[in-house]
Amino acid sequence: MVRMMKEDNKRPWGYYEILSDAPDHKVKRIIVNPGGVLSLQRHKKRAEHWFVVSGEGMVTLEKDKYPVKPGSAIDIVVGAAHRMENTSANDLIIIEIQTGTYFGEDDIERLEDKYGRL
Q: Could you tell me if residue 92 is inside a domain?
C-alpha cells in the first residue's frame, strides 16, 4: 500500500503521516532524515509516546538525553520539553501516539529550533 503524503506534513527535518485521528488520540508515523532534528518543544494539552521502528537517534527529555534504536520507547508527559534527533545515516522512523484533550499542531511551543521556526 502506498500512502499519499500531504504537502503540509513536510518539515525541514523530514515528514510525518497521520495514521489515526480520533477525538481521544492521534497516531503519526514520523520519518526523520539523517541529521534531522525536531525542535525542542512542549505541549499543554497532550502527552506523547514514541516507539522507534527503525534507525538510531537521541531523545532529549527535559535535561536528560537517551539514545534510541529499534524497539526503544519514550513516554513524554504533558508539559515536558522534548526532541528527537536522527544520529544515523538512515531514516529514523518512529510511531507517535498522542493522548490528551487536543492534538492540533498549534499546541507546539517551540523552545529551540535549528531551522529558525521559533
A: yes
Count of domains forming the chain: 1
H/E element, 35:
none
pLDDT tens for residues 7-62? Answer: 678 999 999 999 999 999 999 999 999 999 999 999 999 999 999 999 999 999 99
d(CA 28, CA 55): 17
In Å, how far are 12, 16, 38, 74, 79 from 19, measured between CA atoms? 21, 9, 19, 19, 24
Q: Answer whether residue 29 is part of any domain.
A: yes
Whether pTM exceeds 0.85: yes
In a domain, 41, yes or no: yes
